[in-house]
Design brief:
Number of domains: 1
CATH topology: Glutaredoxin
Low-confidence stretches: 5-11, 17-49
CATH architecture: 3-Layer(aba) Sandwich
Strand order of the largest sheet: 1-9-8-4-5-6-2-3
Strand content: 15-25%
Structural class: alpha+beta
CATH superfamily: Glutaredoxin
Helix content: 25-40%
Shape: globular
Order of helices and strands: HHEEEEHHEHEHEEEHE
C-alpha cells in the first residue's frame, strides 16, 4: 500500500513538469515586446540604400596621358559613356550642349567630368577632333577593348554614372528622360538633379534610371 501511494505522489509531481516541457518555446521574435518589434522593422526600412563601390581604372586621354579614377579621391566624379558616331551623343554635344553645360555648371563645386569611349573601332585622334570641334573641356578616355565599360556594365552612349566622395556609385542611368530633346523644357535632367541633391547633402531621389542611346559597341 505504501509503495502504491508513493507511486501516485511521484506521478502527480511529474505530470506538471512533463506538460511544461511540451510547451513550445517562444521564438526570439516572440520574446520581443510588440512595440519593440515594430521599432525594429521601422529601423530596417529606414536604412540607407546599398551603394556599389566604383571600380578603379586607369585609361589614357587623347593626348596619351594616363588618368585614373583614384586621382580624384574626395571628389565627385561624373562618368559619361561616349561615342562620337552615336546620334544621341552627337545631339547632346553638337546641338544641346547638355554635357558641357553641366560640366561647366558644377565645375566650381569640385565636380570632375570624364567621358569614356569604349567603341571597338574608335581612335584617340577622332576623340580629339570631336572634342576640339565641340569645345569639350574635359578628357575623353580611350577604352577600346571595353575593359572599363564591362566593369561598370555600361550599356549605351550616353550611360551616366555619378561617384561620390567615398568612391561609391550613387547614380546610374540616363542623362535625362527626354531622348533627342523630345520633351523640351518638360524633360527632367537626372544628372543635374542628382548632383544638386548630392551637393546639398540630400538623398538622391532617383538613384537609378534606364539609360537610352546607342548600344556600347564592344569589341568581339
Amino acid at each position: 500500500m505504501k509503495t502504491r501511494l508513493l507511486t501516485i505522489i511521484l506521478l502527480a509531481l511529474a505530470v506538471p513538469l512533463l506538460i511544461s516541457s511540451c510547451k513550445k518555446k517562444p521564438s526570439a521574435q516572440e520574446q520581443i515586446p510588440a512595440k519593440q518589434q515594430k521599432q525594429t522593422i521601422a529601423d530596417v526600412n529606414q536604412m540607407p540604400p546599398k551603394t556599389d563601390t566604383a571600380p578603379d581604372f586607369t585609361l589614357e586621354n587623347y593626348e596619351g596621358n594616363s588618368v585614373s579614377l583614384s586621382d580624384y579621391k574626395s571628389k565627385i566624379v561624373v562618368l559619361e559613356w561616349f561615342n562620337y558616331d552615336c546620334p544621341f551623343s552627337k545631339y547632346h554635344h553638337e546641338k544641346a550642349q547638355t554635357m558641357t553645360n553641366l560640366a561647366e555648371k558644377f565645375k566650381d563645386q569640385g565636380v570632375v567630368w570624364l567621358a569614356i569611349n569604349s567603341t571597338d573601332y574608335m581612335t584617340a585622334e577622332k576623340n580629339k577632333e570631336f572634342a576640339l570641334k565641340n569645345n569639350i573641356p574635359y578628357p575623353i578616355l580611350t577604352d577600346k577593348d571595353g575593359t572599363v565599360a564591362k566593369l561598370y556594365d555600361a550599356k549605351t552612349t550616353p550611360h551616366m554614372f555619378i561617384i561620390n566622395k567615398n568612391q561609391e556609385i550613387v547614380y546610374n542611368g540616363g542623362i535625362d528622360d527626354s531622348p533627342m530633346g523630345e520633351k523640351g523644357e518638360k524633360g527632367v535632367n537626372f544628372v543635374d538633379q542628382a548632383l544638386g541633391e548630392l551637393l546639398d547633402e540630400k538623398a538622391i531621389s532617383q538613384p537609378k534610371t534606364k539609360p537610352y542611346g546607342c548600344s556600347v559597341k564592344y569589341a568581339q
